Structures are given as structure tokens and as C-alpha cells.
Amino acid sequence: MQRFSIASREGARAVSDRAGRGPSERRCDARFPTMVVRMTRCRNLITDVPGIAVGCAHDGRIMSGVTVVLPARPAMAALDVRGGGPGTRESDAIGLAGSVEEVHAIVLSGGSAFGLSAATGVQCWLAERGIGFDVGGARVPVVPQAILFDLLNGGDKAWGASPPYEALARAACDAAGAEFPLGSVGAGYGATTCNLRGGLGSASEALPGGLVVGALVAANPVGSVTVGDGPQFWAAPFEQGGEFGGQGFPAELPAAALHPRLKGGPGQSTTLAVVATNARLSRRSAHRLAVMAQTGLARAIYPVHTPLDGDAVFALATGEIGVEDGAHGLAYLGAAASRVLARSVARAIYAADVAPEGWNGPPAWRSRFGARA
User: Fold this and answer.
1) What percent of the chain has a predicted confidence (pLDDT) above 90?
2) Which of 7, 11, 139, 344 is in Cβ range 3.0-4.6 Å of 215 for a Cys bridge?
3) Is residue 370 part of a domain?
């Protein structure tokens, strides 16, 4: 019998209240001097980008899960990989040399290479609904995917001939919507950092002219998201409205904080992310957005992009609004993407639940530093 946990909208609202990001509690804002905020309410999630839905499912027995990003219509996509040990599917198809212009979903999954079957579950789910690339009358959904390593976290990985990720992915599709919880859910359920439990995080920002950018991350880095032995986050300068505890940044940086702390060995760490926008972008511009968004990982994780990581960032553009001022406009969009991704990483760790029984990994942030506000 399958025992999956599916992220519900009610659960998402409960987590929203605990994490201080309820729709009525904060304004969607941006960092431009002349900006006029056009969105007065938001979820502070990647789903603030119109037409983007997210679904999560995990199995507490195996301590792993899947997260699916579903655009309402086919969307331009690109991928930038900076880690030395990535695990991906259909990455060449959306590369600069590929011929695929649009995708129908993006999948983030635990399970290491076993988790790559999750994309098959999403493809079947989409094909059953007549969604996919038309090839002579056949519908072929294009579903790029990236995986993270969570095989040593204490969960029962003795799944035999049938890893559960295809079924988990279908459950995540069924659960997809605008609301979803953060922390120990979906692809982030079994994630860890070098010193704390990892998780799933998200954040968004509104820009001039109706543009919106949001990020989603499954944070499983080899390095640290917090500064030294304290509760403060490396991403603290970008925090909005106390979304990850309002700890601020240390008045004086502890000397030991700059000594890299690493977990595990090669292939055991990866941070996976999706940045989405309603901007109209070419493939080359979408790739540049993913490249710039990687800066957000560097602002939130120390060290990052190591030979021990498989860090990968997808960019997804729904094409609703043109980007003004050419390269300058894209630069502003990319800077915003890096900010929301940095915030998403911190929110992932801040929202992680107390580790379950049998967990073989570091404690949650709240276990070490107190309950979330």
C-alpha cells in the first residue's frame, strides 16, 4: 500500500501563517528606486507568477519526495548547471543547442538516479489530459527533471524493482495548485545541509510593468545556509518581512564562519531550483536568467557549486509581458531572480520540520534554535 503525503492547500495556509508570509501580511515589493508596486497582495511563492502551479508529494517511510512545477501553457525553459555532480533528464533538449522551444512541466525529485523515473509519471499524467508536443498526431509532453541525493537519510530505500517516484510524481500533479507548504515536503523532504535539515523553499517579487519573478528550491547543499554556529542566514540581507525569522546578520562575522563546512562525499549533495517569470524571453535570454539566478545560491549557501554538488537552476518564462530596455531590462530581471532564489534557500531551512523518528541527518533549524515565529 502506498503511503504518500500530499501537500494540501489547507496545510499550505497553516505553514504560511507560521512562517509569517500569509497573503494578507506582506506586500509584494521590489528593489528598484522608482518602482511603483502594482501587486498589493501575494503568497510569496513561485505561484505568484500567473499560470504557475506547484504540487508536492512525499513518502515519510522512505524519507523522500517529488515536487512538480506545472505551467498553465507550454513555457520557454532553460537550464544552468554549476555543480560537479548533476543528475538531469531532458537537459540537452532545452539547452542552447537543442530544438525544443517549450516545456510542459519541470520536476525536482529526491532519490538520486532512482528519482529520474518521476518525469515519466508526469509525462503520463499530462498525456492522459492531451497535453504535449504534437508529433504527427502523437502528444509527447516535454518534462525536464533534476534529482538530488537523499539515499542516506535513514529512510527505507529497499523498494526493489519499482522505485516509488513515478507514483509520487503523479500524486504531486494531482495536488498542484497555487498554494503549497514549505519545508519538509516534496523534493525537499529528505534534504540536508552540512549542519541542518534541508527543505523546500520559495519566494517571489513584483517588478515594474507587471512583471513577476518567483523561485522554488529544494535545498540539499554540501555547505551551510547559516553563518557559523549561529541561527543567522547567509541570505539575511535580502530577507523581506521576517520571512525566515528576522535574525539579521551577525554584527561581527565569526572567524570560523569562513572555514568551509562540508557534508558527505562526492555525489551526495545538490541544490535544485526553478526561477519563473511572466516575462517574454527567448531561449538565450531564459538561459541568462538561469545563469544570473545562480548568484542567489552563492548569496545563500557557503560554499556552493563545489565538485561535491550537482547544483542546477531551471528558468521558466510564460511569455505574457515583454521586457523593456533590452539587455538592461534582462539584467534587472536576473538580479531579482537571484534575490528571490537566495530568500527561497533560507526559507527552506527555516521552515523544515523537526526530524522524524529514524532520521539519519542533522537537526532542523527549529530544533537547534527554537520554534518558528
Assistant:
1) 75
2) 344
3) no
